[in-house]
Amino acid sequence: MSDPAPLVTNIFTADPSAHVFNGKIYVYPSHDRENEIEDNDEGDQYDMVDYHVLSMDSVGGKTTDHGVALKADDIPWVSKQVWAPDCAEKNGKFYFYFPARDKEGIFRIGVAESDKPEGPFKPDPDYIPGSYSIDPACFVDEDGQAYLYFGGIWGGQLQCWTTGEFKREDYDNREASGDQPAIFPRVAKMTEDMHTFDGGVQEVVINDTDGKPIHASNHDRRFFEAAWVHKYNGKYYFSYSTGDTHFLAHAIGDSPLGPFTYAGKILDPVQGWTTHHSIVEFKGKWYLFYHDTSLSDKNHLRCVKVRELVYDDEGKLKLAQPQK
Ligand code: FUB
Questions:
Q1: What distance lies between CA 193 and its chain's CA centroid?
Q2: What end-to-end distance do the CA atoms of the chain give, in Å?
Q3: Does the model's pTM come out above 0.80?
Q4: CB-CB contact of 105 with 79 (8 Å)
Q5: Considering only CA atoms, which of 176, 165, 171 is closest in space to residue 132?
Q6: Which first-to-last residue range defines the signal peptide (predicted)?
Q7: Residue 135 near ligand 1, beta carbon < 6 Å
Q8: Residues annotated catalytic, as ranges
Q9: Tell me, what's the ipTM?
Q10: Superfamily for the 12-319 domain
Q11: β-bridge partners, 51
Q12: 266 with 32: CB under 8 angstroms?
């Protein structure tokens, strides 16, 4: 199929988290902005300062930009870089989760609340206690229990948290090599009010097809960032970006806490360094929201797109139309 068009072109958008709320698709993206910062592995060029919410009544139809839903300037604990967000609904309220650097330059995760899916969102004064790194994704299971997945290595600092304490000196160690297990994403159960972790943070183990944890050296398969969880036919699907190899991949498990078993790539590399997505069902079809840099040809000025997904006979995901 020909390359899909960006959902919006009035602003640069990335990291789309899509959900169906009140019968419409709402997309919670990062809002990229122009700057002169050179690309580096810390991701300094992703220097975002606010969030917009998008919505649409149908896939392929008009996309509405609801304007600014939350600003970094209004969040007391944030110093800079409001990165990839997500939103969840519980008991008629909407909870917007977002990562940002705190005043010490450490990535943390905050929460903001609204009565409406498009916001505006009122942020809590401090980050979620015990939260760290980037790319929160909130999955609410059928029993009402919410789980917050998060983490990203290198610029997302997850490699600094191997002991449970932040070790700045581990930043440059990046990740192990050889057949040691990769660094895995994290998950925490959310309390009923959706504002704090209920218990501790756990590792989300992703096993390879041999049943052993994916090796750190397997950059085509190991987790880098962009966690997303959805449920299909009673199974839990954990999807993610492989970072420096630029794939979107997925793994399947029987519990929202894992372990998950690698099930293949969903998307081959697109234009631009980062790749980050979400997966959502709408009116009986499944969709992949993702981004590329086709609107700008610059890594930090991205645009959100959508493609249809299907499941094969084994329940593995693939694009409905092949990627060109
Ligand atoms: O948008 C900033 C960062 O780039 C996100 O947090 C990552 O997932 C990558 O897309």
A1: 22
A2: 7
A3: yes
A4: yes
A5: 165
A6: none
A7: yes
A8: 15, 225
A9: 0.98
A10: Glycosyl hydrolase domain; family 43 (2.115.10.20)
A11: 70
A12: no
